[in-house]
């Protein structure tokens, strides 16, 4: 499965009020799900589904909600096949009662499942279907938060496939709805401006990369996340931009700002990466003693954190050996 640092919301289907007994059973399952007690949630979810199919129909709204919550729980239990089956049955049920909103919600969930397991074509199909419905019905902005997940997933898919124009398009859309939902100075917005900058950097559009790194900095200098680590990452990444532009001294200026933050916060993983970047910059400036010093720092941290067989450790060791 793909793992992410960025927070991704989960979408519970939109539940109207049903019979008290069914609602009580559903609420119990949802309670287990929300508290991450997936084992008990799964057991009670099967009981809910059994009750639903006896009292209602497999193509009822009640069945759609029961299938969806079981799909979400199964996903968290790493039961891909079951999760896929439940989401597909949920979509079928909601289509049967012409509930297009919940169809779009479940397609987002199904697309997220496919994305996590690297079925990117199936993920795109479902996520883009969801985006079309939400965008067409979002004239008042009431579906902004429903668009956050599919926009994020689609940005990741197109980024992974090196389709940077489409990745840029979805990241811009994501930032727009995040600014409306969370505020323009939110830490997550600052982080996503940094992601947008990287897309421009990969596209060799250095002017737009710089503009978006500046936007990221302006937000993260105020709301830099825990121990300012998000700000530190942007300083490091801004340094990489200047490395690409072969302005190695300016790159070092930003790396040093990142180091100051990471040293204070004991963020050794990011610190090792920035030390290595500093080594690269000094090497390109033909300052081999300084390059060796920072390669050594990166290697010392990495071998302690990861061990000698880790790919990052090996990379730092290769850089260090090249200078010796």
Automatic annotation (TrEMBL):
Q: Report the domain of life of the source organism.
A: Bacteria
Q: Which PANTHER family match?
A: TETRATRICOPEPTIDE REPEAT PROTEIN (AFU_ORTHOLOGUE AFUA_6G03870)
The protein's name: Tetratricopeptide repeat protein
Entry-linked InterPro entries = TPR-like_helical_dom_sf, TPR_rpt
Q: Is Repeat there in the keyword field?
A: yes
Pfam families, alphabetized:
TPR_12 (PF13424), TPR_8 (PF13181)
Q: Where are the TPR repeats?
A: 232-265, 272-305
Alphabetic keyword roster: Repeat, TPR repeat
Q: Which PROSITE patterns does the protein's record reference?
A: TPR
């Amino acid at each position: 499965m793909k793992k992410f640092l960025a927070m991704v919301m989960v979408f519970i289907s939109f539940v109207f009020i049903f019979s008290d007994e069914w609602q009580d059973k559903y609420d119990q399952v949802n309670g287990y799900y929300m508290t991450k007690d997936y084992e008990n949630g799964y057991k009670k979810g099967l009981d809910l589904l059994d009750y639903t199919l006896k009292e209602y129909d497999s193509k009822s709204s009640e069945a759609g909600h029961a299938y969806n919550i079981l799909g979400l729980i199964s996903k968290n239990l790493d039961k891909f096949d079951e999760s896929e089956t439940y989401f597909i049955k949920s979509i079928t049920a909601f289509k049967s009662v012409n509930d297009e909103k919940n169809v779009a919600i479940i397609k987002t969930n199904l697309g997220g499942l496919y994305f996590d397991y690297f079925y990117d074509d199936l993920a795109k199909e479902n996520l883009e279907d969801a985006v079309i419905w939400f965008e067409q019905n979002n004239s008042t902005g009431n579906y902004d938060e429903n668009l956050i997940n599919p926009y994020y997933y689609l940005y990741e898919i197109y980024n992974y496939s090196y389709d940077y124009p489409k990745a840029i398009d979805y990241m811009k859309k994501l930032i727009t709805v995040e600014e409306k939902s969370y505020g323009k100075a939110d830490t997550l917005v600052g982080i996503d401006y940094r992601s947008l900058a990287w897309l421009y950097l990969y596209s060799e559009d250095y002017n737009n990369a710089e503009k978006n790194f500046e936007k990221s900095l302006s937000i993260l200098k105020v709301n830099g996340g825990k121990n300012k680590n998000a700000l530190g990452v942007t300083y490091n990444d801004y340094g990489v931009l200047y490395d690409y532009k072969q302005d190695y001294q300016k790159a070092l200026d930003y790396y040093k700002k990142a180091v100051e933050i990471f040293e204070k916060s004991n963020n050794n993983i990011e610190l090792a990466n920035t030390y290595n970047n500093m080594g690269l910059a000094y090497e390109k400036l033909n300052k081999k003693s300084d390059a060796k010093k920072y390669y050594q720092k990166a290697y010392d941290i990495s071998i302690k954190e990861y061990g000698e067989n880790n790919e990052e450790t090996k990379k730092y060791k290769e850089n260090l050996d090249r200078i010796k």
